[in-house]
């Protein structure tokens, strides 16, 4: 079997899917989307007693949750192997890289410190959870503000958000994980594997790195060994990816600050596409009472006015009213009632004309008048013959009538429809039901 | 007031004035529940109706619940003494007897390996028992069921999208078939197997099917055409 070197979604080897970062209404809530993978991180804080061994350091907890909402094969309750791997990877990426300044979380040495907790929920699983979760977690931590405290003697007062502006966490650097999927024992690699690619990969390497090219985490899973050069190459790729992602996060944060300051739209609800929820809603037409008598009167007036203006300017020809059809919206062979009508040409000149054809332009547009050509068709033996004679005849009529008045509409829909025969073997689409 | 069909409904809303059949009965499908006084919506979604008296709520779903008579696509995960174990995406794996194939006898066992894709029909499905599959119809003929061989590609789709594809008036598969030849098997458990003439065509068809989820029926033709034209630009 040949190898086609084609990813299912048409991406290149080193391409990420589209990354979107949005924030919630509350501080410390971040929503990251990589393609169809969605994760949400929420940061919270509370005051606790510190560890005996580190009396003047705050605490950081990282918790990852894989709920059955993300994918049917995730089970609620005890974390699966994948859940443990994800949680451990995030912990190493955030906690052990010491990216959060824990000493600034100390309120009273040995007595009271802030405990910061990051809960990462996977909302939809389409591969590459670790990258999405690490991005969401670090962005949420940067976005989070903890309330200010005052200490007087032994008494600690937590000031409400209204009294004192909340304080941002000290973020030293932003470590982000980049995943690589390996195939054929490390012969081929892919960046940002989606769910289907993850299913068939031999192994996976996760590199945690910040924008200063400092390596934070390196984890290899799967039954596969890698060459030294391959690992080095991956760190190179990871460093460029991390630069891009850090820039994206910084931009998103800056944008959020701006929107909050100016009172613009923020929060993840504004980033959702509502049409996806309602794409199959059939809106009922609301019935309104219409005064048909008034409408009829209006129509009569309009017609009368139109006749008067026509009489006023007998020599004037109307400016061509050309409707351009969008790309690939040509309506050839759409079926329906034919508007191919030779006899009606003279009458249709008086009607409202939708489109004007140059003699050398093929016209593709339905006119509104009702056809009578079905009778003509049945009187002939061959459909193809009818089409040709009619086409020639019609264009002749068209040219002469154009000379007379300048305005006419013809429709080649039927003609083209008849010429377009289904090619043999085209309809082989077999449907098993 | 008659219920608003085809509109978005939320849990807690109630509907009344439902249509009944000759015997004065109405069938309530998923998402609807009757209490003493009224009929309440219990999940968010779009209210649907089928003549003469069926109502249900349609909403995006990913988890399949086995139902008797459904045609599904499964993956063989295990071979046991007298049956295969098949993953059909439900809460439990289904079993498929060696004898449930056309022309199978005690001596003549079907050639099915672990990892094969199977198109089968659910013979037994209720909430307290393991679902059972068969690969033949009531007359003992295969009728299209059986192992799907010769490559192709299986993708997963949300269940509501699959149900829409299987609707008789859905233009998606028909329009695709007019543009390029392909083979397909659609399992109502959220899995579609497709095979085109080449790998790239197969990928295109699979992507078109999964991307058409939010495309309305009237836009479908244009959508499929533009995607297929984009493909021909690649060659």
From TrEMBL, chain A:
Biased composition regions of type Polar residues, renumbered to the chain: 267-281, 402-420
The keyword RNA-binding is assigned to this record: yes
InterPro entries tied to this protein: ExoRNase_PH_dom1, ExoRNase_PH_dom2, ExoRNase_PH_dom2_sf, Exosome_comp_Rrp42_subfam, PNPase/RNase_PH_dom_sf, Ribosomal_Su5_D2-typ_SF, Rrp45
A matching Pfam family: RNase_PH_C
Keywords in alphabetical order: Cytoplasm, Exosome, Nucleus, RNA-binding, rRNA processing
Primary site of residence: cytoplasm
Comp. bias (Basic and acidic residues): 424-433
Domain of life: Eukaryota
A Gene Ontology molecular function term of the record: mRNA 3'-UTR AU-rich region binding
Residues in Exoribonuclease phosphorolytic domain copies: 16-147, 173-239
Residues covered by region (Disordered): 262-290, 397-433
Location of the protein in the cell: Cytoplasm; Nucleus, Nucleolus
Listed GO CC annotations: cytoplasmic exosome (RNase complex); nuclear exosome (RNase complex); nucleolus
Gene Ontology biological process: exonucleolytic trimming to generate mature 3'-end of 5.8S rRNA from tricistronic rRNA transcript (SSU-rRNA, 5.8S rRNA, LSU-rRNA); nuclear mRNA surveillance; nuclear polyadenylation-dependent rRNA catabolic process; rRNA catabolic process; TRAMP-dependent tRNA surveillance pathway; U1 snRNA 3'-end processing; U4 snRNA 3'-end processing; U5 snRNA 3'-end processing
Family of this protein: Belongs to the RNase PH family.
Protein name: Exosome complex component RRP45
Species per Swiss-Prot/TrEMBL record: Ridgeia piscesae (Tubeworm)
Automatic annotation (TrEMBL), chain B:
Domain spans labelled Exosome complex exonuclease Rrp40 N-terminal: 27-63
Protein name: Exosome complex component RRP40
Residue ranges annotated for the K Homology domain, each copy included: 152-198
GO biological process, one term: exonucleolytic trimming to generate mature 3'-end of 5.8S rRNA from tricistronic rRNA transcript (SSU-rRNA, 5.8S rRNA, LSU-rRNA)
Location of the protein in the cell: Cytoplasm; Nucleus, Nucleolus
One GO CC annotation: nuclear exosome (RNase complex)
Protein source organism: Ridgeia piscesae (Tubeworm)
Family designation: Belongs to the RRP40 family.
Keywords in alphabetical order: Cytoplasm, Exosome, Nucleus, RNA-binding, rRNA processing
InterPro entries tied to this protein: Exosome_RNA_bind1/RRP40/RRP4, KH_dom_type_1, KH_dom_type_1_sf, NA-bd_OB-fold, RRP40_KH-I, Rrp40_N_euk, Rrp40_S1
Molecular function terms, GO-annotated: RNA binding
């Amino acid at each position: 079997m040949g190898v086609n070197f084609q990813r299912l979604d048409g991406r290149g080897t080193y391409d990420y899917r589209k990354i979107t970062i949005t924030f919630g209404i509350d501080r410390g809530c971040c929503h990251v989307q990589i393609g169809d993978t969605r994760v949400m991180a929420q940061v919270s804080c509370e005051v606790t007693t510190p560890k005996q061994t580190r009396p003047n350091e705050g605490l950081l907890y990282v918790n990852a949750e894989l709920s059955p909402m993300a994918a049917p094969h995730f089970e609620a309750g005890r974390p699966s192997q994948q859940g443990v791997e994800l949680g451990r990877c995030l912990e190493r990426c955030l906690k052990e890289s010491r990216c959060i300044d824990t000493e600034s979380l100390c309120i009273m040495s040995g007595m009271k410190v802030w405990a910061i907790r990051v809960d990462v929920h996977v909302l939809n699983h389409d591969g590459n959870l670790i990258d999405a979760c690490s991005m969401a977690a670090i962005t949420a931590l940067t976005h989070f503000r903890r309330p200010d405290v005052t200490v007087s003697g032994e008494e600690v007062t937590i000031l409400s958000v209204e009294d004192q502006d909340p304080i941002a966490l000290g973020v030293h650097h932003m470590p982000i994980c980049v995943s690589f999927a390996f195939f054929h024992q490390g012969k081929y690699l892919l960046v940002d594997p989606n769910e289907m690619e993850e299913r068939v990969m031999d192994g996976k390497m996760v590199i945690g790195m910040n924008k200063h090219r400092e390596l934070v985490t390196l984890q290899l899973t799967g039954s596969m060994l890698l060459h030294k050069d391959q690992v080095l190459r991956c760190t190179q790729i990871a460093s460029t990816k991390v630069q891009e992602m850090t820039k994206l996060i910084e931009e998103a944060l800056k944008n959020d600050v701006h929107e909050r300051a100016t009172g613009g739209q923020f929060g993840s609800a504004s980033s959702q596409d509502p049409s996806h929820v309602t794409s199959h809603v059939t809106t009922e037409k609301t019935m309104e009472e219409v005064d048909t008598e008034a409408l009829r009167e209006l129509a009569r007036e309009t017609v009368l006015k139109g006749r008067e203006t026509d009489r006023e300017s007998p020599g004037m020809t109307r400016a061509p009213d050309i409707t351009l059809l969008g790309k690939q919206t040509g309506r050839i062979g759409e079926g329906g009632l034919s508007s191919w009508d030779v006899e009606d040409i003279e009458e249709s000149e008086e009607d409202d004309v939708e489109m004007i054809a140059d003699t050398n332009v093929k016209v593709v547009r339905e006119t509104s008048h009702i056809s009578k050509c079905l009778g003509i068709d049945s009187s002939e033996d061959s459909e193809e013959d009818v089409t040709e004679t009619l086409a020639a005849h019609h264009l002749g009529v068209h040219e002469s009538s154009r000379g007379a008045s300048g305005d006419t509409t013809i429709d080649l829909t039927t003609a083209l429809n008849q010429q377009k025969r289904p090619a043999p073997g085209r309809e082989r689409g077999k449907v098993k039901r | 007031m008659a219920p608003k069909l085809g509109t978005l409904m939320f849990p807690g809303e109630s509907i009344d004035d439902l249509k009944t059949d000759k015997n004065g009965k109405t069938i309530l499908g998923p998402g609807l529940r009757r209490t003493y006084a009224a009929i309440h919506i219990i999940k968010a979604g779009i209210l649907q109706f089928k003549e003469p008296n069926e109502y249900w709520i349609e909403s995006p779903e990913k988890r399949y619940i086995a139902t008797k008579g459904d045609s599904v696509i499964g993956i063989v995960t295990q071979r046991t003494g007298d049956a295969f174990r098949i993953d059909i995406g439900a809460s439990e794996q289904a079993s498929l007897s060696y004898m449930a194939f056309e022309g199978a006898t005690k001596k003549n066992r079907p050639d099915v390996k672990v990892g094969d894709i199977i198109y089968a029909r659910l013979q037994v499905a209720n909430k307290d028992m393991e679902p059972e599959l068969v690969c033949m119809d009531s007359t003992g003929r295969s009728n299209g069921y059986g192992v799907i061989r010769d490559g192709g590609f299986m993708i997963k789709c949300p269940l509501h999208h699959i149900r829409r594809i299987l609707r008789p008036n859905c233009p998606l598969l028909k329009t695709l078939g007019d543009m390029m030849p392909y083979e397909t098997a659609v399992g109502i458990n959220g899995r579609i197997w497709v095979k085109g003439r080449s790998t790239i065509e197969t990928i295109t068809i699979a992507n078109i099917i999964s991307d058409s989820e939010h495309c309305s029926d009237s836009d479908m033709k244009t959508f499929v055409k533009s995607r297929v034209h984009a493909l021909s630009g690649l060659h």
